[in-house]
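Quick board copy: two proteins, each given as sequence then tokens.
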Amino acid sequence: MNLIERAKNIILTPQKEWLVIEVENTVTIDLFKNYVAPLAAIPAVASFIGMSIIGFSVPMLGTIRLPIIAGISAMVMSFVFALIGVYLIALLIDALAPQFGATKNPAQALKVAAYSFTPAWLAGILSLLPSLSMLGVLAGLYGIYLLYLGLPVLMKVPQEKAAAYTAVSVVCSILIMIVFTMVVGSVGGGSIYGMGAIPTASRTSETAGTLNELEKMGKKMEEASKKMDDAKKSGDPQAEMKAATEALGVALGGSSQAEVVDKDKLKALLPETIGDLKRNSLEGEKSAMGEFKVAKAEARYADENNHQIKISITDTGGSKMFGAMFAWGMMEQDKETDAGYEKMGKVNGRPTHERFQKDGSTGEYSLLVGGRFLVETRGENVDMATIKTASAAVAYDKLEAMKNEGIKP
């Protein structure tokens, strides 16, 4: 087994690769030594570099770095727990098999668990820049799709029960990973305000509902892979680059195809004043990478007493996978420290994220409207009530009315 080829194939052509994996006689220690350990080391090492060497920016405080010893401890524990986690999740998958008409087989369960983690481990390189680490959630969601494809092949679960088997396995696995994350956080500096948002609840039905979108995404990934192979055979570097860019766009944008709302429409939703704060800047932009499209409008407000508000509206182009990147639909959190608090949940059915420092220096309130519009409001030297009032000034109902705009049938 070649690690690079296996990782590439399980991500780009998973349906074919699971059939190859099914008949392999893989020794457990070899699977861990030659595949799991090298890939699991990527997020552990990258996170250490990102948090302890590069550091992360905190408003009013500048760049903060975790102490080296704490960073090393967290890195080692993260790596060890990744290995243990794969093994425990494999035991879980095997134990659940009879409940869904599948065949108990510890060796096959271990393979399906290990290889399903591939995209999440590879995306761990994003932890070099802590601000990008949330993109790893998207890779984790693709891992759910890989699990969904692998269970019928390796565990012989009937296709009609594969979604339920996947959903229950994922929910139970999340509970396992929550415990691990909490332990790592307690050692590696999880007490630092604003770090380590951990889901405290996950909904089986929502996990299962995501699988349809993931399946569409998987089919597009296979199509993108074929285009990459054809471009490679052509020997045209420009064609290869174009195909690779399209594949990345599919991975980021998921299965939805839509034209984003015009940036000027988004700019029009940002008011000229919010209470005593006057708008002093207004910007709009649109960008695209393959099928992944984004439009954004941003405004800044301030008064003479240095009270500041920044509001941004980002249109993800109707991409449900990009919205799922924030995992709000599957997360709840209520965390409080001496420095501040952080909450994740839903308000009027919309996923929300709220964070505030008790000294009133900074705070933010974000929510997802219509499954595609991300409204982010950040404030300095203002209270949370002011931040939420500023957010509501965007007029969520108007955004909601545009949720299907540009989406192709």
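And the next:
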Amino acid sequence: MNATLLRSAFYIAAICGIYLAAAMFVPAMADLYYANGDWQVFAICGFMVGGTSLVTAVAMRGNPPPFSRRLGFFLVNLLWMTFALVGSIPIFLAREDLTFAQALFESVSAITTTGSTVLTGLDESAPGLLLWRSLLQWMGGIGIVALGLFILPFLRIGGMAFFKMESSDTSDKPFARMASFTRAFLAIYVGITIACAVSYDLAGMSHFDAVNHALTTVATGGFSTHDSSFGYFDNPTLLLISSFFMTLCSLPFSILILFVVRGRLDTLRDPQIILFLSYLAIAAFLLALYISLDGQMDFVNALVQSLFNVSSILSTTGFASTDYTAWGAFAVVMVFFLTFMGGCSGSTAGGIKAYRFLILYNMLSTGMKKLIYPNAVYSIRYGRLSVDSETQRAVSMFFTAYILLWAFGSLAMAAFGYDLITATSAVLTALSNVGPGLGNIIGPSGNFSSFADPELYLLSVMMLLGRLEILTVAVILMPMYWRG
């Protein structure tokens, strides 16, 4: 890694720091409007971060080198660390009396759109702090989609955007039409956020709640302004609205761009969209049927509740309308497996993602055929497209790394003294960026406030690894990366 690449990466990180500093004045104004003294914290942090970032940007400014994989790997990690550290500063200095580990955990959970929280008493929390958490998730969602659309396909780590971006050289030159796609994406992202906020407001939320929940719904983040999340509102209409927007934002934004901008109806036949919507519908129906047959509620109410909570888990949003672990063993086991799955590539959702399951299934199917006809030639398909060996290798590496990290993290949590369900689900929800885990401590009716600092640092790393597709982080830890 040469000095020019490092300087360029830090220059870009400093520019992002300036944007974050500017964003801090939004919660400052919210606190000032509601006469809360925390406005001074956000204002001081805004000036402090902005000044430091500006000095750094001036010092690091220079002719940028050509974008390369080496720069891409380093830049992605540096930007997410910058967002996490800068985002934690006002949380740490606010009046919640948090340790730095707790503030960092909250910030990482926000920018990775995980939604796990160490805060309690959200109903009485300062409005500026609540809005800052929501803004971090919303901005994190923008970064996540940009990562999936432009960076990961170029780095050959993940993302299916290059299968859909109409020009044959898009996968090799991801920034060739970045400006047009970025404008379209931002317009759609902001438009969906406004539509969601207006829908929440019309359905009965206060203006403040509607804005906050819209920001975290579109980002599939799941931070709420109330401890009981959507259970606070007790409104089936809100559950249906939220289910729609969570599902919409779990779809690939590259597909939404082509559909909205160019009217490409055929893009909606993307195999991962069909798979994602299929297992969402099946899981919601089966869970509703189980709840109604168990006599807990009638089928219609059960379907509304199951659709909302299944959508929340599969989209990795993490909202909850009730403690769904109280529905019975079938619900708990289903939630456990849904936590692995996630949404589509190029969306704000986390998890393993639908396209990887499709490719893994086709690899397994082809492997079985080769056992019968060893000399036959079979190609791995993604719909009508052939999947090259590099993509197959990336999918296999990600899946293997995901399972190994989950096992390692679970053992580490067990060493800290947690039971099997808490240990395994805490690491799983962090890697998949879902939010709530299972069990009495971190289930949908609990939070992570009782975790000590070492556990929070571990889970913060897991959230970052999961959001950056694991291999993006693993690459820069290799000595080979830093040589040459």
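Board note added afterward: The beta strands are 381-382, 385-386.
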